[in-house]
Structure formats: C-alpha cells, structure tokens
Amino acid sequence: MAVGGRTRVTGYLVRRTTGVLDRVGDMSVIALEGFRRTWDVRTWFWEFVQQCWFLARVTSLPVLLVSLPLGATVALQVGQLAWQLGASSATGGAVVVGLVREVAPMASALLIAGAGGSAMTSDIGARNIRDELAAMEVMAVNPIHRLVTPRLWAASTVAVLLVPLVIVAGAGGGYFFNVIVQGVTPGAYFDGAVSLLVTSDLLVTLLKAWIFGFIAAIMSCYFGMTCQTSPVGVGRAVNQSTVVTFMLVFAVNYVITMIYFLAYPPRSM
User: How far apart are CA 213 and CA 211, in angstroms?
Assistant: First the structure.
C-alpha cells in the first residue's frame, strides 16, 4: 500500500510538472511569435492605437484614485515615525523615492492586469468560443500577429505612460499630508527626494513598467486563446490570467529590484 501510494504521488507530481512546463512553453511560443512580426507595423498599427486608447481610458482614473490616498497613507505612516525622530523633512524623500522605485510600476501593472488584462482575456476568449481564431487561420491570417502583437505593445506602452501619473498623484497625496497637515516646508519635502533619487531609478522604473505590461498582456492573451470553449471557461480564464499575472509581477519585481540594488547601491542623504 505504501509503495502504491508513493507511486501515485510521484505520478501526480510528474503530471503536474509536465503540465506546468507545457504551459510555460506555450506562453513562450505565443510571446516570441507575437514579437516576430513586430516589424510589420502596417498590419497591426490601428489595432494597437485602439488598444492603447481602451487601456488608457479604463486605467487612468483608477490609477489616480489609487495613488492619491496611497501617497497620503505612506506619508502618514512615515511622517509619524519621522516626527518622533525629529526628521519630519525626510518624509517627502521617503514618499517620493518609494513611489518612483516600487509603487509606480507595481500600481500601473496591477491596473493593467486587473482592468485591461481581464478585458483582453474575455475578448480573445469570446473570439475563441465563436471559432474566430480558427476562421482566421483558415483565411491564412495568423491570429497571434493580428491580435496578440498589438496588445503586447499597447499594454507595455500604457504601463509606461501610467508611471508619471502614479508618481505625480502619489507625491501630491504625500505633499498634502506632509506640508499642509504637518507644516513641513515645500522645499524640504522635495529636497529629500532630489537628494536620494538618481536617473537610473527612473529608468529602471520605466523598464519595470514595460516588462510588467508585457507580462500582463501575454498572460491575458494566452489564457484567452487556450480557454475552454464555453462562457464558464472564459470566466475561469479571466480569473486565472489575473492571478498568474499578479504572482509573476511580484516575483519579477523582486528579481529586478535585487539585481538593481546589487549593481547600484542606494546612496545616503
């Protein structure tokens, strides 16, 4: 019995591992195939413009509404501790540095995945149910080139463009609490951020946002193209794509941040 139980467990683990590797391989194929025809801009440019407009429309206001209270909350928590230590002027530096290095790319990626990515998955999943993807292949039109490529570039582009909105809105929320409520001078609020930030911080933040947008798009397109051909299958695909995207974004963010801090250690004030 014990030997049989171990055999079943081993077989289950092998099947699960094989299934995960198959999915990773399929995701990689879709991503590489989506980038392969990037040079043929004429075939996907207008779809790219439509997707950019859609993503910007559904994420711009939410990202502002998230960033404003988030910046104020960070300023509240850091400001109380800094006030007890007699360093209230350092609150602005902590808020802006945190927004630029971590909050901005993460907020833009999560909103792209939650608001835009779910719509991408449901759209492509609905096309899959109606056999539109198969019909495109019959007409010698590659559905990955026509549907996935513009969505990859649109999600990456909009994710990068959302970063300044997050930084400005979050810094505004922190400014209100730190300057208006606590009475710190505006010069001291921004001076701490200027002394801590470097150009590479912003460049890495934009790179993070681009990578996170790409991850959100490829997960959304993959789960939409491979969902079960039923309304329930589309709903499950939307749920799976959002969860997997969140997990990958946090994991990749940790890796990029660790490599960046090893290569460029933070400087002191």
Answer: 5
- Place 42 in a pLDDT band, splitting at 50, 70 and 90: confident
- What pTM was computed for the model? 0.86
Q: How confident is the model at residue 97 (pLDDT cuts 50, 70, 90)?
A: confident
- And the tokens for 42? 């004429």
Q: Report whether pLDDT(95) > 70.
A: yes
Nearest partner of 240 among 259, 219, 225, 255, judged by Cα: 219
Q: Which of 91, 88, 90 is nearest to 73 (CA)?
A: 91
Q: How big is the CA angle at 117 (ends 21 and 25), to the nearest 5 degrees?
A: 15
Distance CA 169, CA 68 (A): 5
- In contact, 128 and 236? CB cutoff 8 Å: no
Interatomic CA distance for residues 66 and 70, integer angstroms: 6
Q: Which two tokens stand for residue 158?
A: 């909009």
* 1, two tokens: 């019995």
Cα torsion 219, 222, 223, 225 to 10°: value is 150
